[in-house]
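Q: Focus on the shape:
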Amino acid sequence: MIPIAKPLLGEEEIDAVTSVLRSGIIAEGKRVAEFENKFAEYIGTEYAVAVNSGTSALHAALRAHGIGEGDEVITTSFSFIATANSVLFTGAKPVFADIEHDTFNIDTNNIIKKITQKTKALMPVHLYGHAAEMNAIMDIAEDYNLVVIEDACQAHGATYANKKVGSYGTGAFSFYPTKNMTTSEGGMITTNDSEVSARTRMIRSHGSKQRYLHEIIGYNLRMTDISAAIGLVQLGKLDDFTSIRQKNATILSDGLRNVDGITIPVVWNRCRHVFHQYTIRVEKRDALAAMLNRSGIGTGMYYPIPIHKQPVYRNLGYDDNLPECEKAAVEALSIPVHPGVSKDELKTIIDSIKNGVEAND
């Protein structure tokens, strides 16, 4: 089987974890602090705050900006459900804008149509590793005095206009095992705002800056030194991982560019795409995916049911008309692009897709 995703963990990560275990200090400690400092340096922000998941990063970032009951946050429905759920966790309401056809990212023209007096924040998602249109998003935020929370959970190292995502607004990253780098489970908030940094540190630790003195409502969202030790090693490998992903994506694009019924990913000139996923559009997506899976090639449908159509959101009264989201949900198919895929396997994937498309014609 050629898996759709595969964490690459070596002896360096094992040695790093063993060192932490031998130290006896396995909760949040100096490894977490070191990881925060190096991740902030990598993204280009003043501060980074480590937490236990990407969902926690989104939730804490929203809370740190004072988002709560009665507020609205404009985001995309074509994402993992954690994007919108993090807004619900605060008591605010996610409002869904449609997406662009080419990048699958939030449509900035549609954002403007969704703004109301209750809108307090914009939450673009840098989906599949391609940056959203950040210049336009930051201009809208400035015009309407809105906070920007970047869901960069799939976009470690991606750039827009030579600036890394997660450094435009307040960034949220995930280190789940399928991401471009992992800590097993974990997340990170990035910011240039000292107050946001301080508040997220309190929110992740029961609302406390000083032990047993609790100033605000908080949670237990801390990262362990075990996870941070893995993250430090993985961060050192991230650019190499990204380079391999990009080379693999080029091979896939060259092989699939002229295949009828297949639309390959778009990469804007002003962006560095880090290919968390290599996602094609396929007219007969489900049939091709089934054929590839039977042939031992892993695929992913990210995301076959947009968030606004999920039962939990239907029960909350959501009934949006988002035609591009709904079209993407039946056409988007991700195929293996991760650094563990060999050139021979890439050729097998390309040939299998060509054969599958011909068989379904």
